[in-house]
Write a structure and sequence with these properties.
Length: 288
Amino acid sequence: MKNFKRTIAIVCGGDSSEHDVSLRSAQGLYSFFDKERYDVYIVDIKGQDWHVELHDGTTAKIDRNDFSFIENGKAKLFDYAYITIHGTPGENGLLQGYFDLIDLPYSTSGVLVEAMTFDKFVLNQYLRGYGVSVADSLLIRKGYEELVSDDEVEERIGMPCFVKPAADGSSFGVSKVKNKDQLAPAIRKAILESPEVMVESFLEGTEITQGIYKTREKTVVFPITEVVTSNEFFDYDAKYNGQVQEITPARISPEIADRVSKITSHIYDIPSASTISSRRRVRYPCSR
């Protein structure tokens, strides 16, 4: 019997400032796939321009009715979508809803979990309701900036603090604010990335990150990585231009490492999504 390959779409691009970051992620993923087992294509989405890169170096338009394309005169459908878009529409539930409508399996969690975890302020409030300790924060909406005064921010959140887009990533639009005079320009910078801005209190400590995934059969919690940068914070240059040390395992005590792993697993379970793969970046005040 003939062994048919599954056709995989690595969906990248998107409409945020992270478009080019997503393209690099897609190229990395493409290199890892076993081409003997899978027929793999990179699909680039930006606004209304949806196209697939064909194996001969040309591109073809994606038919959004069923996410198909034409190759060698024949229509071709995908069996699976590996979403690697950073930002909208791949991390906020929009693309997941589209794939649900056309019944195409995909790699991420579903619409609700994606939408909720994409918005930093919403997620923090949700987790706080389950007893998870998160930094205090305020939300400022575009056009209503005057409703939250600089004095209120200083009194409730304190200085220094972070001003960041509520729905964006890779530290685009993020500022570390050290005094009230820096608040207004930081908010304007963040609003360029997202119409909702979160002002969040500064937590001093060791910055760590930990990955986790769960299946019906098992839970896999990855080693904790310590993030060390001489920059003001873990900004774009630290993430993508090598201005960081990532130390695995993190230089924390076994007791704290065990506590962190339990918290990571707990946070993973809260959205009640069996397929979510999360990566939480937090600061814990702990000794070296």
